[in-house]
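Q: What structure does this chain adopt?
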Amino acid sequence: MKKDLHPANYRMVVFQDLNDNTTYLTRSTADTDETIKLDGVEYPLIKVHISGSSHPFYTGEERIVDIEGRVDKFKARAAAGQAAKDKRAAAAKKQAARKTAKAEKAEAKKTES
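A:
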């Protein structure tokens, strides 16, 4: 086997689910600056948005887990895009109306002469 292929800094780390504050104590090489005291011992802490205790697949619940507001951001972008599209369409319609009015005015002036 190849030497020095896998990291050597495995240590006990606590993963905390932010949805239900469930904690898991396991070995990991993930780096973090936060710590937590668990059973009188201080461990590095890694916060996760979703884990087996809150994921709908494992809990059997059907719910939308949207911690960061991604659905709301998407809906806001879609609404802004539609508003911009409507504004461009109105501007194009107004421009076309001006052009036809100008052409009619020029035609009327031509017929007067």
